[in-house]
Design a protein that fits this description.
It contains 4 helices and 39 strands. By secondary structure, the chain is of the alpha/beta class. It has 2 domains: 93 residues, MurE/MurF, N-terminal domain (Udp-n-acetylmuramoylalanyl-d-glutamate--2,6- Diaminopimelate Ligase, Chain: A, domain 1, 3-Layer(aba) Sandwich), CATH 3.40.1390.10; 215 residues, Hexapeptide repeat proteins (UDP N-Acetylglucosamine Acyltransferase, domain 1). Strands 8-10-13-16-19-24-27-30-33-36-38-39 form a 12-stranded mixed beta sheet. Strands 9-12-15-18-23-26-29-32-35 form a 9-stranded parallel beta sheet, with no helix packed on it. Strands 11-14-17-20-25-28-31-34-37 form a 9-stranded parallel beta sheet, with no helix packed on it.
């Protein structure tokens, strides 16, 4: 990559404060900035690096007012953090241009429908009556089951397993070794103490612009569909059980598990190692902090929940203060 400050301002819709011809050929964190590198400043605790960084260009918010001289050229944008994400995506798209390709020892059926410029890696297995949209990239050792539909501009990384009958939207990213459509954990207890497996005949429907992390599993429904809404972002090592519904633009950090038939609203933020029991509903715009356990319905939108069982964060902090004080008193005895 190579950009001038003027080019960057055009791509990102910003303005140049400094030398418009300043040129960068790579990225660097602001604390590691060197000549020829592009950095960004978005978090106030890193402000001191703005004045000491040797980066040639720094992306900053439009309302940033320096308290000291800044040697770097600044490109002012509405939101520096969002701008650098857009730029990384722009660079990735321009450098990863794939042409039509069919990899070594990959197999597919005559009934498979490939869109334009589909790139298929080595040792892949594509089932019967599968449909794959334009410009989708499928890396090595991917298995896609019969009757699966995959949209345009998707990226499917090595080792992904997609069971038969799944529906995947446009612009979806599936990271290495994630599994879409495995059986849910459904077993019926028998009088003799054994367990009878419940067959799962449903599927998984994934919306547009979804990203699912490495080694995450999304189970198919018993009869209908497990649904992942548009814009959902799921981290590595998460478990989404059968019949779960996740609303649009919800994000979920690593090692979170959602039990069967739970419904999570739109624009929720779920931190790492959260557990959510089955058959409950969580309202839109809910934030659940790390290692919390949600065991009941969350009816009020916009809450921040903490603890096990999860309660409003302010209540949790007051309770924690009491727990801490009692612990100190106990230690003093």
């Amino acid at each position: 990559m190579q950009f001038t400050a003027k080019q960057l301002s055009g791509i990102l819709g910003g303005t140049v404060d400094g030398n418009p011809d300043a040129t960068v050929t790579g990225f660097a964190k602001i604390e590691h900035g060197k000549p020829g590198k592009l950095s960004f400043y978005a978090n106030p605790k890193y402000e001191h690096y703005v004045y000491t960084s040797e980066a040639s260009i720094i992306l900053v918010n439009k309302d940033f007012e320096p308290k000291q001289p800044v040697s770097a050229t600044m490109v002012r944008v509405d939101n520096a953090y969002t701008a650098v994400a857009q730029l990384l995506k722009y660079v990735s798209a321009s450098t990863n241009v794939h042409k039509r390709h069919r990899g070594w020892r990959s197999k597919w059926h005559l009934s498979t429908k490939f869109g334009k410029r589909v790139w298929l890696g080595d040792l892949c297995s594509i089932g019967k009556r599968v449909e794959i949209g334009d410009d989708t990239v499928i890396y090595d050792n991917v298995t896609i089951g019969d009757r699966t539909v995959i949209g345009k501009n998707c990226i499917i990384y090595p080792g992904v397993r997609i069971y038969p009958g799944m529906v995947i939207g446009n612009g979806v990213i599936l990271h290495a070794n994630c599994v879409i459509g495995s059986d849910g954990f459904g077993n019926a207890p028998q009088p003799d103490g054994t367990w009878e497996k419940i067959e799962h005949l449903g599927n998984v429907i994934i919306g547009d612009n979804v990203e699912i992390g490495a080694c995450t599993t999304v189970d198919r429904a018993e009869m209908e569909s497990t649904i992942i809404g548009n814009g959902v972002k799921i981290d590595n090592l998460c478990q989404i059980a059968h019949n779960v519904q996740i609303g649009d633009n919800t994000v979920m950090a690593a090692m979170t598990g959602i039990a069967g038939s739970a419904i999570v609203g739109k624009n929720c933020i779920i931190a790492g190692q959260v557990g959510i029991v089955g058959h409950i509903k969580i309202a839109d715009n809910t934030t659940i902090t790390a290692q919390s356990g949600v065991i009941g319905n969350v009816r009020k939108s916009g809450q921040i929940l903490s603890g096990m069982p999860a309660i409003p964060h302010a209540n949790f902090m007051r309770s924690y203060a009491i727990f801490k004080q009692q612990g100190l008193e106990h230690e003093g005895k």
